[in-house]
Each structure stands twice: as structure tokens, then as C-alpha cells.
User: Which sequence fits this backbone?
């Protein structure tokens, strides 16, 4: 992965930059080598880079002052929440200030009357739910990293989770944010009324991967916990019958809270790992949650059971909360289970039309043979979000490169069948160079002009999301291709 | 007036307008031309021929259509498969006295959603992707045709509520949802706004997944005394009965079913309740719990509260504009001037002016699509 070249003139000014930041956040500047090593990667752990310096502000005013300082000094900024991004969104730069929002972790207000919570960006996803669950509420988006991931990071990545089939992604559960622009101005977008009185900039900055500014306050919706949740596990003799079952359930009008698919390899690896009770020999397994009021759930369960049988599958229902948890514990341990099969693994994240599942599964088999690497499939089946897990050994010459190439081919395949590069993990550095497979030049230039509207100096998270080096020209924000810029040797991370 | 029938013709038209630096108004069904600041006398780009469903895959919960496809056509096609659009589009044509045809692009561009917004969210929650022509005369795509997608900036959000100021839409892809089999409206009559809204919030914070929660004062609905809290619930037969029973459990047994009710929430959401009431018509978005106080202070003769109080509709004399805007601002809300004379609309705009940094950002984003401000200039 190639990133824009390090600006050695910035590195040379490091001592002054550190001093400038200390003047803003006296107790929150990390500049020593061992301290910085904590921040040298996010969850895309194949890539490491020690940041120039890391600063940990505690207030929005400090964030604003840091951005004013960085803007005046022309120093790149990389925002970071909890560092759980799977696409390298928080990968630091050698010539950039890493701003960690982890100290801003206060829950500012819980407003049950209006069904919302106001939090600082460093609050973890799960802590929002924990703060309101005693009153019977929860925050719906539930990315698998929810114990650790921060709500600011969720906004930046537009995080999803197991239950977004019914409850939507982060963007559908936000009412407002307070946002610091690259020049340090603080703007509020939306709020408890959920109204902006202009363009939907809240929608734009959600999922903008730290390219447009920094979130310093978030207003999220909370929902009443459904009174009843029932979990079904369905096993199928073929992948195709499992895929047909998913389509039939959706077409029937049932909206499950979650509908997860795993293939035989994944299911058996998981069964070996923590024995959640997945049947061996089934080519495809679905785990389905139905939630709501009692009769709604009964209706859904009865429809689902009938449809599974019609598709040639067999249904087992969790009889109690313990078994429910056990069934889900398997799915949630998919990464760990695969980790036992090989030392290293990468998790891909394409999104496809559901009807293309059999074709994509078949073509992935061919690719697997071609690259000589194993993989398995877990899949948010209800919304077509694939998570193929590719296993390899970093220590074996060339395997990492092969695994990356295999992954890239899977994502190209997703695009070919009408899907997209990322369903929920974001582009970051991981999929940046594939953007041209999904988007035409005009499409990317339109996105880039918006980037320039926020960040004309290009200081925010450079090297992420957009594949070409480019600069903004002030007048009319006309896009200039990187080819016209000096193109020195690019370092490899 | 120029008509276009495909994306290439839109490109040609925009390039010519760009060369002439000649701004124009974009019109599809023509029902919402009186929304926002008047554009004055300028050329019209008629996109009504960009019309029709392009693809519909019920099993994928996805529908792609040309922008000027009538809402009625979309709803009919979806209903055949027991589905509905992902959002509840509002048709303001009766309220605005227009005899045009309400279209997809019009509803999306004006962020026009009805009472179903409570449950299904605004248009921005279901527009998955689009194709359009920007102010440089370049056709581009954004978003995708799958339900889950975080690839690149989420531009579909931006075109919702942009009032046609960012792009000439040429194709739109939506999420669709199963249509509930049955609906019931429960009416709790003769309650004050304080009590009515408190009840509605109780249902909003329950697990009943209500499809509509409105308060109507007694002068807008017959036989409800001083006013009624209205609760719309949806579902298959048996679950719906359970929800009705649970609602009674939460609010007591003074509620009755409204027999003729099924059209009522459409009349509320479309603003039709105000069609024959004189005055400017406002939509004021506020936090739900502020509804009783703000409604009282607005002191309008004709008003109602939708979205469990999160949206107040009212009719008021033009002289009330500043007062309404400042009341909305006092609770971080937004007052949208929906129906008014050209003079009022020119004076007060669609929304209150934004703080300087935010206004500058809005202008910069607009310029990123349409640097010469060719599209519906000044409307938003």
C-alpha cells in the first residue's frame, strides 16, 4: 500500500510542533517512542507507522485549537477514536499529528423524554447502551467491536453491525453532531430536533472516514429494548438453498432483526473452537433473530420456519437465553476460530445483491484455488454484506501479498455483480486503490470536490479513501490530477 | 422551457447553460415550485420525461426509477408485491394548490416525508444511490444499488432536501420495505396538548414501533373535544391486536378505534388539513418534549403536532414569521416556511439563516457540485 510521501520538512520541525501542541494540551501530548508505539496502527494490523506526535485533547476547544495550529503549520492530521478500524482509517503518518479522542468520553446527557443521548466522541458504543439499559433502552448499531469502538469512530466509519438489517447503520441512528472543521471552526449539525435547515451535512460527514473534520459531540437515538427476541438456527444441504431461503424470507415480508450466514468451513472451524452446537456437514447455516412484541415474533418465527423447510433446510430454535447466547457466541467468535487455522487472516467486506450469492461463492472458490489460500465465509445475509476471511501466514514469503490480491479480486467480483467495495468497514487505506473499480473518474472527482470544500489544504487524513494524489485549486475547487504534481518515490508501509 | 428525455440531453443542456452562465429552474412534476425562495423569471428545464421504473427487484428490496416517476405509480407497483418505499413521501400538491403530479425527485429534493417518518425515517434513510448531472455538465454516479454501502462519501444524503440546488437527478435507487398487512388508528379524545403529547411520547418510547403519532386540536377533527392523541399501529392481524392491547395497557381504555381513519395520517402528512385555512403554513421541527410549550407559545388558531410532537404544523399571518423562527431556534429547532406568498418567501427564506461558519460550509458544498450556481439558484 502506497501512501503520500512523508514531508521531511515537517519531520524536521517536530520539536516545535510538539511544543506547540503542549501549549494547547499540556498534559496530553505523547512524543516519546514507547508511548507512540501504542498508536502506530489500528485494527488493520498489517500496517504500522509511528505518528509524528500524538495529542489527546479533553475538550472541543482544544480540538479546535489543535486544528488551527495544524492548519497554520501545514501539518497533516489523522483522527483516531479507539483504533478499531478494519480498513486503516486511523493509520498514522510519519509527518502527521494523530489526534486521539479517547479522553473525551463523557456521557453529557441522557434524555429519555426525547429518546436520545448526548455523548462525547470517545464514549464506546457499548457504554451508550450500558448507560440506558436499566431503563429498558439501547443504542441499536452494534459493530462487533462495540466493547471498544468509540461513537466518534462509528460516525466516521458509518459503522453497522449484526442488527442493521432492521435498525440501520450509524447514519440512521444519529440526530446531530458538533463538528470541528479543518480550520478550527466549530459547527453544529442537527440536534435533538433532528433538523438542519440546509444541506444534510450530517449525512455527508457520517462515513467520511476522518477526511472532513473531527466530531466532538454526538446525539444518538436510543430505542426501547424489544420485549421478545427469539433465535433460530437453520442448516442447509447447499449454499444455494441457504441463499434462496434468505431471499424468500425477505420476499415474504419478514424483517428479521439479524440474519447471518456462514459456510461449512466457517461453521466447522467455529464448532471446533467453542462448540456453539453448529451441525457438522451442513453447507450453509443461517442464524436468525426475530424481535419485537410477542405476537410479532411468533408470526415471524412461524413464517421463517415454514420457509426454511420449503427451501430444504432444518430449523432449531434456541430454547432459552443461555442457548441463544451460545449460538451467537459462535458467530461472534468467527475471527478467533479462523485464527486457529492459520497465523494470519484478513477480513474482507464487500456488499452484493443477495441473488448473486451463489455466483460469488462459486467464483471465490476458483480464486481460492488460484491463489492457493484458504478462506471461509461469514455474511450478513439479510443485507448482502459479505465478510470472506482469508487465512495465510505472514512469515511465508509472498503470502501476505497473495492474500491481499485474493481479497482485492473478491471485492472486484462484488463490484462486477452489482455490489460495492465496502458494506461497513470503510475504504481507508485497505481498499483505496480499488475505488476506481467501482467509480468512474467523474464520480471520484465529484467526491473529491466535496473533500476540497471542507479541506482545501488536503491536511485531513491524506492518503485515505481516494486513490490518486490530488490537490484542490481554490477557484471553483477544480480538481487537479496527481500526475501534475511532483511524484517522488513513495514509501511502502 | 426545454425538455430532456435522457441523461445525455441533460448534459448538453447544462453545458450550454454553463457556457451562457444562464441559471435555470429544474421542474419534474411541478407540484413544489412554490417551495423556497422564488426564483424569479428564468429558463425552465423540464425533466418530466425522465420517467418510469428502471428496475425493481422485490427480493433485493431495491427499486431504481427515473426521477420524474410519479409517486402514485411507484406506490402502485410496490403494492402489487406487498412492498412500499423505504420512506413515506408526502404529496404537498393540494396544500400548495398545484395541479401537477407529485414525483419521486420532488419528494426527495424537498425532503418531503409524511407521518411515517416517525418509523421509517426521512427520504435520506432510503435513497441508496443516484445518477445525476452536476453544474460542470458531467454525469456522475453516487452511492450504490445495494442496501448496505459505506464506499466513499454518502452523497445520496446530500441530495435529499437540497431542493434541486446540487444536481439534475437522472436516476434514483431506493430501499423498499415489506408493507404491513393492516393498520389501525387509535384515538384518545378530549385531552390537552400537554397530556396528549405525553401519551404520544410514551408510545414513541415503547416497543410498539408506531407508524404515526399525532395530536390534533378539536378545531381540526370533529368529536374529539379539546383535542385528540392519534396513534397509528401496523402489522399482521394477530401482532396488530397485541399492539393495540399493549397500547391500551400503556394509556388506558379511553381510546377508541377511528373507523374512517386510514386516510387521516396521509392528510396530516401531506399538510392537506391546512389546504383551506388562510395564512402562511409552517413546519416546525423541534425536540418532541418541547411540543406542548412551543405549541402554546406559537399561539396559532390552526395547528397540529405530528411525529409525537417533533413536528408542529401551523397556519399563521405573515407578520408572525420572526416570532415563529425565534421560538424554533430557542429549542435548536428549524421552522420551514412551506406555503406562503412569493413576497413572504423572498423575505424569510425556506429556513432561518445559518450561523456564518455553517452558511459558508453550505455554500462551499453547493459550489462543489454547481460552482456557477446554475441550479435553482437561491431557492434553499
Assistant:
Amino acid at each position: 500500500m502506497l501512501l503520500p510521501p512523508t514531508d521531511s520538512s515537517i519531520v524536521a520541525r517536530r520539536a516545535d510542533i510538539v511544543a506547540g501542541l503542549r501549549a494547547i494540551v499540556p498534559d496530553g501530548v505523547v512524543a516519546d517512542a514507547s508511548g507512540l508505539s501504542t498508536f502506530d496502527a489500528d485494527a488493520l494490523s498489517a500496517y504500522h507507522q509511528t505518528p509524528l506526535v500524538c495529542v489527546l485533547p479533553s475538550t472541543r476547544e482544544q480540538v479546535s485549537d489543535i486544528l488551527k495550529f495544524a492548519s497554520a503549520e501545514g501539518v497533516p492530521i489523522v483522527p483516531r477514536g479507539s483504533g478499531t478500524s478494519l480498513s486503516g482509517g486511523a493509520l498514522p503518518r510519519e509527518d502527521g499529528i494523530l489526534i486521539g479522542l479517547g479522553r473525551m468520553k463523557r456521557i453529557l446527557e441522557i434524555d429519555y423524554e426525547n429518546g436520545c443521548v448526548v455523548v462525547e466522541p470517545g464514549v464506546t458504543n457499548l457504554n451508550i447502551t450500558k448507560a440506558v439499559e436499566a431503563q429498558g433502552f439501547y443504542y441499536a448499531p452494534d459493530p462487533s467491536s462495540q466493547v471498544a469502538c468509540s461513537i466518534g469512530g462509528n460516525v466516521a466509519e458509518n459503522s453497522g453491525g449484526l442488527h442493521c438489517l432492521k435498525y440501520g447503520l450509524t447514519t440512521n441512528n444519529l440526530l446531530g453532531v458538533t463538528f470541528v472543521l479543518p480550520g478550527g471552526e466549530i459547527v453544529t449539525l442537527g440536534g435533538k430536533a433532528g433538523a438542519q435547515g440546509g444541506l444534510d451535512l450530517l449525512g455527508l460527514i457520517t462515513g467520511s472516514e476522518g477526511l472532513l473534520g473531527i466530531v466532538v459531540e454526538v446525539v444518538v437515538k436510543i430505542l426501547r429494548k424489544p420485549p421478545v427476541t427469539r433465535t433460530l438456527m437453520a442448516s442447509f444441504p447447499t449454499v444455494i438453498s441457504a441463499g434462496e431461503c434468505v431471499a424468500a424470507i425477505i420476499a415474504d415480508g419478514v424483517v428479521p432483526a439479524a440474519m447471518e450466514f456462514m459456510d461449512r468451513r466457517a461453521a466447522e472451524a467455529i464448532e471446533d473452537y467453542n462448540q456453539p452446537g453448529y451441525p457438522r456437514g451442513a453447507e450453509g447455516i443461517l442464524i436468525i433473530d426475530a424481535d419485537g412484541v410477542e405476537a410479532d415474533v411468533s408470526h415471524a418465527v412461524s413464517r421463517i420456519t415454514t420457509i426454511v423447510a420449503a427451501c430444504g433446510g432444518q430449523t432449531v430454535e434456541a430454547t432459552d437465553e443461555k442457548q441463544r447466547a451460545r449460538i451467537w457466541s459462535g458467530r461472534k467468535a468467527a475471527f478467533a476460530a479462523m485464527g486457529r487455522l492459520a497465523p494470519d487472516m484478513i477480513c474482507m467486506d464487500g456488499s452484493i445483491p443477495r441473488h448473486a450469492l451463489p455466483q460469488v461463492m462459486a467464483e471465490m472458490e476458483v480464486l481460492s484455488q488460484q491463489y492457493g489460500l484458504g478462506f471461509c465465509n461469514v455474511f450478513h445475509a439479510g443485507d448482502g454484506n459479505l465478510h470472506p476471511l482469508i487465512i495465510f501466514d505472514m512469515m511465508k514469503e509472498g503470502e501476505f501479498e497473495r492474500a491481499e490480491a485474493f481479497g482485492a479480486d473478491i471485492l472486484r467480483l462484488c463490484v462486477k455483480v452489482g455490489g460495492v467495495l465496502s458494506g461497513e468497514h470503510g475504504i481507508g487505506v485497505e481498499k483505496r486503490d480499488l475505488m476506481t473499480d467501482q467509480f468512474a473518474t467523474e464520480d471520484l472527482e465529484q467526491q473529491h470536490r466535496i473533500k476540497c470544500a471542507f479541506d482545501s489544504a488536503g491536511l485531513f487524513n491524506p492518503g485515505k479513501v481516494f486513490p490518486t494524489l490530488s490537490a484542490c485549486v481554490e477557484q471553483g475547487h477544480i480538481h487537479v490530477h496527481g500526475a501534475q504534481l511532483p511524484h517522488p518515490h513513495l514509501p511502502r508501509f | 422551457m426545454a425538455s430532456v428525455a435522457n441523461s445525455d440531453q441533460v448534459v448538453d443542456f447544462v453545458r450550454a447553460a454553463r457556457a451562457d452562465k444562464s441559471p435555470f429552474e429544474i421542474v419534474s412534476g411541478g407540484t413544489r415550485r412554490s417551495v423556497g425562495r422564488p426564483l424569479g423569471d428564468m429558463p425552465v428545464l423540464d425533466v418530466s420525461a425522465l420517467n418510469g421504473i428502471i428496475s425493481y427487484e422485490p427480493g433485493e428490496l431495491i427499486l431504481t426509477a427515473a426521477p420524474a416517476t410519479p409517486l402514485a405509480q411507484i406506490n402502485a407497483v410496490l403494492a402489487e408485491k406487498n412492498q412500499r418505499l423505504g420512506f413515506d413521501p408526502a404529496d404537498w400538491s393540494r396544500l400548495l394548490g398545484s395541479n401537477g403530479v407529485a414525483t419521486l425527485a420532488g419528494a426527495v429534493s424537498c425532503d418531503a416525508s409524511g407521518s411515517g417518518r416517525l418509523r421509517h425515517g426521512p427520504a435520506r434513510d432510503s435513497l441508496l444511490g443516484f445518477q445525476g448531472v452536476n453544474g460542470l455538465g458531467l454525469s456522475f454516479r453516487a452511492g450504490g444499488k445495494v442496501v448496505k454501502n459505506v464506499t466513499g462519501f454518502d452523497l445520496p444524503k446530500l441530495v435529499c432536501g437540497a431542493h434541486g440546488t446540487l444536481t439534475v437527478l437522472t436516476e434514483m435507487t431506493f430501499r423498499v420495505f415489506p408493507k404491513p398487512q393492516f393498520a389501525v388508528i387509535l384515538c384518545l379524545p378530549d385531552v390537552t396538548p400537554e397530556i396528549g403529547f405525553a401519551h404520544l411520547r410514551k408510545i414513541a418510547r415503547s416497543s410498539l414501533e408506531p407508524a404515526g403519532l399525532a395530536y390534533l386540536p378539536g378545531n381540526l377533527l370533529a368529536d374529539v373535544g379539546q383535542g385528540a392523541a392519534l396513534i397509528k399501529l401496523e402489522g399482521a392481524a394477530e401482532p396488530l391486536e397485541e399492539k393495540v392491547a399493549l397500547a391500551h395497557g400503556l394509556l388506558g381504555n379511553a381510546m377508541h378505534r377511528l373507523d374512517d381513519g386510514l386516510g387521516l395520517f396521509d392528510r396530516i402528512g401531506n399538510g392537506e388539513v391546512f389546504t383551506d385555512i388562510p395564512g402562511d403554513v409552517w413546519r416546525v421541527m423541534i425536540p418532541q418534549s418541547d411540543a406542548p410549550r412551543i405549541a402554546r407559545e406559537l399561539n396559532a388558531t390552526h395547528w397540529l403536532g405530528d411525529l409525537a410532537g417533533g413536528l408542529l404544523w401551523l397556519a399563521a399571518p405573515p407578520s408572525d414569521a420572526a416570532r415563529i423562527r425565534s421560538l424554533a431556534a430557542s429549542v435548536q429547532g428549524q421552522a420551514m416556511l412551506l406555503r406562503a406568498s412569493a413576497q413572504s418567501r423572498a423575505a424569510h427564506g425556506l429556513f432561518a439563516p445559518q450561523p456564518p461558519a455553517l452558511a459558508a460550509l453550505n455554500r462551499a458544498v453547493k459550489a462543489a457540485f454547481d460552482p456557477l450556481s446554475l441550479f435553482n439558484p437561491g431557492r434553499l
Remarks:
- Residues 182-265 of chain B form a domain with the Alpha-Beta Plaits fold (CATH 3.30.70.3450).
- The mean pLDDT of chain B is 96.
